[in-house]
Specification:
0% strand; rod-shaped
Length: 179
């Protein structure tokens, strides 16, 4: 529980005591003002905590996209996401928590799409590379010297395509890397 919330409850109890028991209305008014300040502080702290959690999530997704080579496969999307994220961070540092919390619902799907599109493009690249390697090996008649090697690669390629078509991009990329 935020400390401001605890203080607010204590102040409310004290206000009730001042009114009901002590009949000290002036002190009750002062304590109610303090309670209002604590409520406002609690609201701000709650917004700050929620905004920070959302920013951490977005930051982890951008890092995930970078790890999947977004700079190579989707550089414009990555740049746009990073610029938007930096703007949110500036708003957060400026204690503009409402702005951050209102902007995140529009930005979150864009960043999640960045991760997905990066994985798709990276997987397409790996599959195309395996196809090219198979073609080169066939042209060099490698199957004469290494019988069965091309068939193994073709099987891995087939599995990678099936995984790709089922939206399992990570496993498809891994399968095509084995080829």
């Amino acid at each position: 529980q935020p400390q401001a919330l605890v203080r607010t409850r204590e102040n409310i109890e004290n206000v009730a005591k001042k009114i009901e028991k002590d009949r000290d209305y002036k002190q009750a008014i002062l304590l109610s003002g303090s309670a209002m300040t604590d409520v406002e502080n609690g609201i701000v702290e709650t917004k700050r905590t929620k905004a920070m959690a959302e920013l951490r999530y977005l930051d982890s997704k951008i890092a995930e996209a970078r790890a999947d080579e977004a700079l190579v496969y989707t550089p414009d999307r990555l740049r746009n996401a990073e610029v938007a994220f930096q703007t949110l961070m500036q708003d957060f540092v400026a204690n503009q928590f409402d702005t951050v919390l209102n902007t995140i619902p529009q930005l979150k799907p864009q960043i999640e799409d960045l991760v997905t599109v990066t994985r798709i493009e990276a997987t397409k690249e790996k599959i195309a590379q395996v196809e090219k390697n198979i073609k080169n090996l066939r042209e060099q008649a490698v199957d004469v010297h290494l019988p069965g090697r091309i068939e193994v690669m073709e099987q891995l390629l087939k599995e990678a395509r099936e995984l790709f078509n089922n939206n399992d991009y990570d496993t498809a990329k891994e399968k095509s890397s084995q080829g």
